[in-house]
């Protein structure tokens, strides 16, 4: 597997009385072509890590590479290949969207005779072509976010990094951002995003790391993290019957299955089951043999908050 970000024993300590350990022995690998979510509460070290990856802050100890380039010796190469949308990004309000992009495009090294065409293409890509000549002071928070995304795409980066991209964005803007991220990954790019809003972005991530007080408490693919939690906490299933009067009989039969840890009636005609292993096949066979009138057999995946709580408690 090819990795676009590799951190090894990364430490960042800010001087003070007492000193603040922002990153504590961080080891991290981000697969190429992934949507990688870095999740943690405010103050967990997310923005500090991004600053180090972009060569804007020096680590106290350890090493890191982005796209194969060392963050200490080759930060200019990294910044030329990575599009960054930091938290609290800003534009010149008195300038139009097109003027802003042309300005930032020139700073990014796009030739003067090409920058206007490139900026217009990107504005169309993010759905702002009709507002190209409007001043940024007239833009909503969501429109400014789209303009920020456009700015990160100007130089056609290999990877994009978003720091808290959905803060202050309404639900429609969040859904739009999720669609955008999924579309650009299909183009072969990698997206690395940090957030404390698990519900906003967790569903689109293929891989994740959870950070707490500067330490990575878990990382891997979503399937790996979910399976590990299920192995420790159990596999949850829900059965909904069309005939509530059959619940008592079902309860007795389910309790006889060897891997069943807990069975309870949630509602009329609804039974919740937790198994010590994946008992989906056994439940399906039981329902078929017993000739139950089944409305649904559902495997319940843990919510994002459940995953974060599980790994933050040190179980993982």
Strand order of the largest sheet: 6-7-8-3-9-10
What oligomeric state do the depicted chains represent?
Answer: single chain
Structural class: alpha/beta
Task: Give the N-to-C terminal Cα separation.
Answer: 23 Å
Strand content: 25-35%
Largest sheet: 6 strands, mixed
Uncertain spans = none
Mean pLDDT: 90
Count the DSSP helices. 11
In short:
The chain is an alpha/beta fold and 316 residues long.
For this entry, give a set of tags.
four-stranded antiparallel beta sheet, 11 helices, 29% strand, 36% helix
What does this structure look like?
The protein is globular. It is 36% helix and 29% strand. Helix 3 (97-107) crosses helix 4 (112-125) and helix 4 (112-125) packs across helix 5. The chain has helices spanning 46-53, 75-81, 97-107, 112-125, 141-153, 171-186, 198-201, 222-233, 247-255, 280-289, 304-312, and strands at residues 3-14, 20-31, 35-39, 61-66, 69-70, 82-85, 159-163, 190-195, 207-212, 215-221, 235-241, 260-267, 270-275, 294-300. The chain has a six-stranded mixed beta sheet, with helices on both faces. By secondary structure, the chain is α/β, with parallel strands linked by helices. The longest helix is centred in the middle third of the chain and has 16 residues, at 171-186.
